[in-house]
Amino acid sequence: MGKKMQIALTVNGEAHELLAEPRELLIYVLRERLNLTGPHAGCETSHCGACTVEMNGKSVKSCTVFAAQANGATITTIEGLGSPDSLSVLQQSFREHHGLQCGYCTPGMITRAHRLLQENPDPTEEEVRFGISGNLCRCTGYQNIVKAILAAAATINGAKEAAE
Amino acid sequence: MNDLTPTPEDRTAKLKGLGTSRKRVEDARFTQGKGNYVDDIKMPGMLHGDFVRSPYAHARVKSVNADAAKALPGVIAVLTAADLAPLNLHWMPTLAGDKQMVLADGKVLFQGQEVAFVVASDRYVCADAIELVEVEYEELPVVTDPFKALEPGAPVLREDLAGQTSGAHGARRHHNHIFLWETGDEAATNQAIAAAEVVAEEMVYYHRVHPCPLETCGCVASMDKVNGKLTVFGTFQAPHVVRTVASLLSGIEEHNIRVVSPDIGGGFGNKVGVYPGYVCSIVASIVTGKPVKWIEDRMDNLMATAFARDYWMKGRISATKDGRITGLHCHVTADHGAFDACADPTKFPAGFFHICTGSYDIPVAYVGVDGVYTNKAPGGVAYRCSFRVTEAAYFIERMIEVLAIELGMDAAELRSKNFIRKDQFPYNSALGWEYDSGDYHTAWDKALAAVDYAGLRREQAERVAAFKRGETRKLLGIGLTHFTEIVGAGPVKNCDILGMGMFDSCEIRIHPTGSAIARLGTISQGQGHATTFAQILATEIGLPADSITIEEGDTDTAPYGLGTYGSRSTPVAGAATAMAGRKIRAKAQMIAAWLLEVHDGDVEWDIDRFVVKGAPERFKTMKDIAYAAYHNAIPGIEPGLEAVSYYDPPNMTYPFGAYVCVMEIDVDTGTHEVRQFYALDDCGTRINPMIIEGQVHGGLTEALAIAMGQEIAYDEIGNCKNSTLMDFFLPTAVETPHYTTDHTETPSPHHPIGAKGVGESPNVGGVPAFSNAVHDAFRAFGLRQAHMPHDHWRIWKIANQLGLHG
Q1: Which CATH architecture has domain B307-489+652-801?
Q2: Which of the following is catalytic: B384, B463, B609, B779?
Q3: Is there a contact between B88 and B292 (Cβ–Cβ < 8 Å)?
Q4: pLDDT at B1
Q5: Contacts of B525 in chain A (CB under 8 A)
Q6: pTM of the entire structure?
Q7: What pLDDT is attached to residue A164?
Q8: Buried b (16+ CB within 10 A) or exposed e, A98-136
Q9: How far does A150 lie from chain B, in Å, by closest CA?
Q10: H or E segment at A107?
Q11: SS3 assignment, position B75
Q12: For this structure, is B384 an active site residue?
């Protein structure tokens, strides 16, 4: 145990200040202190990606980030990507294309896909597969996840074109 | 009638019933991160529990000193076997009729075994305290090889069984022997094989693997001492069984125990068993009076709960010169680990392994299975399969390939020649099963045509020639499988778990305004029950699936059932759902007749309503009937519209499928690329094609993992070598190929809607398809059998041993 540290985080647009031990992991701060249970712990070794959140515009595995490292960071979790009244295009697309089964990997997967489409708005199938390769799914075999992400990209790009 | 009257097609479509690719109702919640998994549960005052685990695979526990741990601020208790012994909970019964230590009682028998349970204010304090518990071990000789375990001088593992020459499944002939289970006619089989023109013999090993769902196992136990009620939330594939077992073990009456399976992050068999973590959490909650949460980490999960397979299958198969199979003999050495905790129906210690005659008409057969103790984790669960069916399918599909080599015959032709013909169903197998239905030749021919099998073989021959000329270093493998499953356990007459019959149930309550809630004895772990069971009901009772809530997993509200595993939900609970729906419809018919002022027999069912025969303009919809059921005083009919059905299936169901995997193999690197995978499944009546396809994709990917890299291996001193996701292969989107799915539809004759179950077929059929592709690539160079997993190193070794590296 170490002395607790004062940590400031902006999560899904909301500012939080809290005290955390230096060894406390971001995933547990999010889940147990801020009650954001969308990100899940699947391995605690960075392999499975169920804990994926966005930190300062990058996808991170929150199970291997100390809360202290996130001090001052802007974080987005699945809870910040859509609302019950307005699902994001990706959330809708996952439903439409049956891109989830047990739902355990889904928050991390969608959060990762969201960042992927920011980084590469018009990916090929191969790029999508590589882009989500840090996120494991045991149920779907990925085929419908890939389909959902490609369809979401097309929808977003179509909407952009229509607006231009 | 006018233009606004909906057509029958419109009315049917509105129901979103059987056969509709209805979008899932679960997804709105899951896509927003609003699932409710066990680790999401928070209760006031909740404590955390976790285990001190053994670093040794076999050792005497000399002492456990928890003083330093208990002195750490925030530590509430440290439980050891000595604390559990007065409650008689230091051991617990397993599902297989053996017993298992809850906490190490004098010795440990596998690495990762639970030694002490630390209860603390939070997970960090708990982890610190685990480090402070001092355990003194004295190492003992380790045996991880089941053949060596049966040698006369092998270390004695289970000292608690000293002198016991018989166990739950008959005689034990050695101190590490658990049982010998036999079926079939051995003498006649040996005779057939001895007299045969051609015999193929092979040892087929199906290695030890792990279901590894993305969510590990865990629970929150909460003993409310004020009202005497114990509530346990947990990752339970069979919550009702857990309640009964918890009651029997604890002495708490069953009405005072509520077991809840919340959302489950994948099960695949991992969450069928009862684990020490559940028992310790319950005891800790009773002791402390506070809720106690226990959540496995990934290492705990891979090391300690629920391995699968680990079957050494020695086979002999005989045939005539022209390829007609005459007999099959199989002896299995089954490595069960330290305790026999296999999750099989009680009367079947080797599960349904004796479905190993597969899709073939084999006149005589024998199976003998020797269960053996080793210093490995207990488990033996059905990892995405019905009990030991994957082992059986892998065995026969390898034996067919080996026989084809022996005969010098094409493996597709050999299969076709020996398939049980359509006119032979119902078919009684040599090992005692009654196959309910099937049309194997149709499925097989469709599959071979879809992949242009003849063309593939031509390409393969050309490739081999090019390889021999030095023009390529890549070989082409064509992996064939025709599997037959046996799922839907099962008839209570021969299927039970610890005496609990394997029926299942559905309870339906129709609301006055024409919507409904149905509760089942099963529990979804991603299969989409909330979506599909509503579809079964929609077709049965004529209310839209969107107006039907499905609930499962809470033993206080759901009817008793045996849970979800072994593809049993649709065959058993799905049948109960249809039957309960029919009871609703029967009462609705009387109400409709009364409302229409005709006799009961004068109305007939039409999609979503009862109509007067011959006068279709006179009708009452289910919605009208629902309201009347509650609010009209109908003479001779009780108010309300509810039904319950407990369904005891008359037989298992027998889904089947034809898979073809086309694989490119690089001889120099051992890497592979799945160029094409075609999967034809016949699961009888199809409830939701979208969900079926998703199940097939997922099951094939688990099959890919198992065949091509996944294993739980031990070194000689019993260290588990694959206890993290660094070492335990789970395919990513990059390694996972694209799948083409297809189907035929042969309804089950005994199931109310003809459905058979599909969730596990792709794993059962997928593993031999991938593995056969690897073998087939090297067939021209003399390969007969190479054990899985076929990772790059092992494929390289095959090539090397065949002299292909020059």
Answers
A1: 2-Layer Sandwich (3.30)
A2: B384
A3: no
A4: 44
A5: 102
A6: 0.97
A7: 83
A8: bbbbbbbbbbbbbbbbbbbbeeeeebeeeebbebbbbbb
A9: 14
A10: helix A106-119
A11: strand
A12: yes
Q: Which residues of A touch B24 (CB under 8 A)?
A: 95, 98
The segment(s) of chain B belonging to CATH 3.30.365.10 are 8-35+504-647, 307-489+652-801
Per-residue model confidence (pLDDT) at position B343:
87
The DSSP output letter for B571 is: I
Residues A152 and A109 in one domain: yes
Residue B5, pLDDT score: 81
User: Tokens 């064509």 belong to which residue?
Assistant: B478
H/E stretch holding B299: helix B298-304
The minimum CA-CA distance between B243 and chain A, rounded to whole Å, is: 23
Is position B801 annotated as part of the catalytic site? no
Cα(B720)–Cα(B735) distance, integer angstroms: 25
What are the angstrom distances between the C-alpha of B140 and each of B133, B240, B349? 21, 39, 29
What domain count does chain A have? 2
> Do residues A59 and A96 both lie within one domain?
no
pLDDT at B498 (0 to 100): 86
Gap between the Cα atoms of B632 and B595, Å rounded: 9
Task: State whether B31 and A110 contact (CB < 8 Å).
Answer: yes
Say yes or no: A76 and A93 in one domain: no
The confidence score (pLDDT) of residue B806 equals 80
Give pLDDT tens digits for A11-65: 999 999 999 999 999 999 999 999 999 999 999 999 999 999 999 999 999 999 9
pLDDT of residue B3: 56
Residue A1 has pLDDT above 60, yes or no: no
Ranges for all domains in chain B classified under CATH 3.90.1170.50: 38-140+216-264+272-304
Q: Residue B802: which residues within 8 A CB-CB, separation 6 or more?
A: B778, B781, B782, B783
Question: Is the ipTM of this structure higher than 0.90?
Answer: yes
Exactly one of B212, B219, B330, B385 is catalytic; name it: B385
Burial class (CB in 10 A: 0-12, 13-18, 19+), A90: buried
Q: Which residues are registered as beta bridge partners of A61?
A: A52
Q: Residue A13's CB: how many other CB atoms inside 10 A?
A: 9
Which of the following is catalytic: B100, B111, B113, B237?
Answer: B237
Residue count (chain B): 806
Q: Which positions of chain B have pLDDT values less than 70? A: 1-4
Contact in structure between B542 and B24 (CB atoms under 8 Å): no
Distance from the Cα of B27 to chain A's closest Cα (Å) equals 6
State which residues form the domain around A129. Answer: 89-163
CATH homologous superfamily for the domain B38-140+216-264+272-304: Aldehyde oxidase/xanthine dehydrogenase, a/b hammerhead (3.90.1170.50)
CATH of the domain at A15: 3.10.20.30
Is the domain defined by B8-35+504-647 classed in CATH 3.30.1050.10?
no
Active-site annotation holds for B356: no
